Amino acid sequence: MKGNMQNMDLTIPKLIEHAERYTSDTLIVSRETDNSILKKTTGECLNQSRKIAKLLQSLKVGKGDRVATIAWNNSRHFEIYFGVTGMGGVLHTINPRLFPEQLIYILNHAEDKVVFVDDTFLPLIEGVQDHLEFSPVIILMGPKKEINFDIKNLHFYDEMVEQSEPISDWVEVDEGDAAALCYTSGTTGNPKGVLYSHRSTVLHTWASGNALRFDTTSSVLPVVPMFHVNAWGTPYAALMTGCKLILPGQALDGASLFELISAENPNILMGVPTVWLGLLNYLSEQNLTLEGVDSVMVGGSAAPLAMIKEFNEKHNTFLVHGWGMTEMSPLGTMNLQTKKMKELPNEERYELQTKQGYPLFGVEIKIVDDANNELARDGSAQGALLVRGPWIIESYFKSDSPAVDDEGWFDTGDVAKIFSDGCMQIMDRSKDVIKSGGEWISSIDLENAAVGHPDVEEACVVGVPHPKWDERPILLVICKGDLDKESINEFLGDKVAKWWLPDDIIKVDELPHGATGKLLKVELREQYKEHLME
């Protein structure tokens, strides 16, 4: 027997209509590329989205056509998000931190008809345009002005949108239709496209907005870029819940972020650990504290224990670990503050906060060994982390091969533990875990412990060949002063197993980061592969 309830396609145009009708007066604050602060209502932004939709139709963009953005978190980018998907197009956010060869590949692979670009990224367009297999319309996100770049087929956002009439009705789409396209940057070879549907996006929005506790009283500052997995879905969740949205533009240094936080009073912050390290350093140097920030969500890489403590003890702010990936839309697990956590002594609670948390409803997880046998959820066994669910990839864009096994499980490439209560902890990337004498060493745990040392600003651990133990860890650090190996080893002595201690500690001026801010360990392993072999 089936139920007697109505069925409605889950689509972004319906999400837009809901926001226009019920939360159109919600404030969106944006730092523009000229560093000015612009304040608009959701209704005003979505009216611009309607004009963008009509403009795209006049440019012969139809259902399923890709429209790219290379832009910061700002009001125009927000308007484009919903103008594109509201008229049936596919929003393709491009990470400008990728190498030029990757940008060329992505633009050609996606076959974008239109590219919206902030003026700071015009040099990228000038550098790649002659290598494209087509000639997209380039729209500079701002007023008409003189530019010092030779850009073909260039138009100006403010002029074109102002001249466009708003679309009268959002386009009817099927919930299975494509809505957004993001490319991975952490794979070997060419980036791979992950094509989200309207249904998967709406389901992810419901789950993430609820988990992050967004509502009409919330004020959210997403420092995670809108070009990185759609800012973890925050623009959609803000639209669904009616929360205030604060967009920081390109000014992501500690001083600029604190200025925006002080002026606009967000209670939820979202970003990667390196951003929060910069903010915390600025606050410490200026003897400042955060006021009214309830939680800071961290993703992209694990936050060190020292960061968790500093947010709590100096700023009365709870750090929330989230975990996911592009192939997961991206959120999979979250470690939110619970009643049980609040009742624990600080040190026990901090230890729990270092874990990546519990799956959102809709996400299934398990760990398996090399033979694909499921491992125990006992907090001891560790293995390859597999996931499945309604907003998790089935196959990559323009690929004939499935990305999952016969039962729908996707291999994340992470090594993890799952505890008896279901909490999950990432131990390492499978390619970064260090295998020494038949045992595993987590580079993430060792890095996070090292960052707790008062003289260490950033740390990176890589495994390099060893004549006896197969691999051993070496620790690369950016220091505030002179390197004191003995002090760092002594500091680590009661925080990790003795056999985990690095065989060498090396001071460096900088560490290589990828397009999403993650450490690039492949080139470091190559650089130091002979370091312990002498």
What report would you give on this structure?
With 534 residues, the protein is an alpha/beta fold. The protein has three domains: 159 residues, 3-Layer(aba) Sandwich (Rossmann fold), CATH 3.40.50.12780; 176 residues, ANL, N-terminal domain (Rossmann fold); 94 residues, ANL, C-terminal domain (GMP Synthetase, Chain A, domain 3, 2-Layer Sandwich). It is built from 17 helices and 25 strands. The strands form five sheets. A nine-stranded mixed beta sheet has the order 2-1-11-10-12-13-14-15-16, sandwiched between helices. The protein has a seven-stranded mixed beta sheet with strand order 7-6-5-3-4-8-9, with helices on both faces. Strands 17-18-19-20 form a four-stranded antiparallel beta sheet. The longest helix is centred in the N-terminal third of the chain and has 17 residues. It is globular, with a radius of gyration of 23 Å. The model has no long low-confidence stretch (mean pLDDT 94).
